[in-house]
């Protein structure tokens, strides 16, 4: 009884984890790009295959989580899940210890976890899997019961997985766990952020030139203790090692990063959020954008006479027939999963969002 409960709980965790990533496989691929980037593992050829790898990992989690749930091919299934858990534990430990990826993306945007939380979650899962392996070791050679129910359930689960992943890649996630979901009022979100801001402190790495001792001191302690900065002090600030650390978590929302600007640096946020209707087309990577789709989308947007129309990207010359605005590429990726992508606001409230390809097909 106990081993069945443990097996089912672990299986459901893998299925849940796989499902939220399957819903938004593109978003998960962005997270893998972070791991493969020069600042982390520096594996550029894998960075280019991030979406393919994201789909493989998601399918791996869902398929083997499902097999564990229905108690099929137990030895092989448990071995694969243990290997996956070891892999994830390595990634989360690396990102936590070196503080390089602040959110592993284990549960997508549905549940944000800090690196150490993710690591210990993987450790607990790994221990649980090893216990299940030990408890079921005498059942590995049992003849599996074959039934039409299992067959049809497996087929349904597989088709659902394919549909959810494909829809999220070619259109938008079936379920939107992001801060920019339809119905979100950016004005209200901005107010919440302003009322409860996060607080950061600057930390200096100080080295004593006489003793070689190194200390990390926050900005307040540095200012309040003159021994660190008075004339003749042996303490010097080490170049390139000053950091900013979160000391109080305020209202957490990706919408804090929504700040489109003109190519000259003029903030357009208020104008966009106050407009009766604003239609924004985004491109997080102008070099890889489909030019044909971009031109068709621009042509359709140019006909919008009752709306504020802007093209927002990381390049001031991306859009040829509408006004250009600029925003950080990572911030754009939190909004847009397609490249290009169209977002429609009414007085700051999100009323529609879709890939530019789907926007072109839209009859309205």
From TrEMBL:
Lipid bilayer topology: Multi-pass membrane protein
TM ranges: 49-69, 76-98, 118-136, 152-169
Tree of life domain: Bacteria
InterPro entries: Methylamine_util_MauE
Source species of the chain: Kaistella flava (ex Peng et al. 2021)
Location of the Methylamine utilisation protein MauE domain: 3-134
Keywords, in A-Z order: Membrane, Transmembrane, Transmembrane helix
Protein's recorded name: DoxX family protein
One Gene Ontology biological process: methylamine metabolic process
GO CC terms of this entry: membrane
């Amino acid at each position: 009884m106990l081993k069945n409960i443990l097996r089912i709980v672990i299986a459901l965790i893998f299925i849940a984890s796989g499902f939220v990533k399957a819903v938004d496989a593109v978003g998960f691929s962005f997270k893998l790009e972070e791991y493969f980037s020069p600042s982390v593992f520096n594996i550029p050829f894998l960075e280019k295959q991030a979406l393919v790898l994201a789909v493989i990992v998601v399918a791996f989690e869902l398929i083997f989580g499902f097999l564990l749930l229905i108690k099929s091919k137990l030895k092989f299934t448990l071995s694969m899940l243990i290997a996956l858990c070891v892999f994830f534990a390595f990634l989360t430990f690396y990102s936590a210890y070196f503080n390089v990826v602040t959110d592993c993306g284990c549960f997508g945007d549905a549940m944000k976890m800090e690196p150490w939380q993710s690591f210990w979650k993987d450790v607990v899962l790994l221990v649980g899997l090893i216990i299940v392996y030990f408890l079921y070791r005498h059942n590995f050679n049992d003849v599996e019961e074959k039934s039409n129910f299992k067959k049809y359930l497996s087929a349904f689960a597989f088709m659902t997985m394919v549909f959810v992943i494909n829809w999220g890649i070619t259109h938008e996630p079936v379920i939107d766990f992001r801060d920019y979901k339809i119905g979100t009022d950016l004005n209200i979100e901005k107010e919440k952020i302003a009322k409860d801001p996060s607080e950061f402190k600057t930390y200096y790495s100080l080295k004593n030139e006489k003793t070689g001792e190194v200390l990390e001191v926050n900005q307040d302690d540095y200012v309040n203790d003159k021994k660190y900065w008075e004339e003749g002090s042996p303490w010097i600030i080490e170049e390139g090692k000053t950091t900013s650390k979160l000391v109080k978590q305020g209202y957490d929302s990706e919408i804090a990063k929504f700040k489109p600007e003109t190519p000259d640096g003029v903030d357009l946020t208020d104008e966009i959020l106050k407009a009766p209707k604003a239609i924004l087309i985004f491109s997080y990577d102008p070099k890889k954008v489909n030019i044909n789709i971009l031109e068709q989308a621009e042509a359709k947007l140019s006909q919008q006479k009752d709306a504020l129309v802007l093209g927002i990207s990381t390049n001031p010359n991306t859009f040829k027939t509408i006004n250009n605005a600029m925003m950080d590429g990572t911030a754009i990726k939190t909004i847009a999963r397609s490249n290009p992508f169209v977002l429609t606001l009414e007085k700051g409230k999100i009323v529609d969002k879709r890939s530019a390809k789907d926007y072109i097909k839209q009859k309205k």
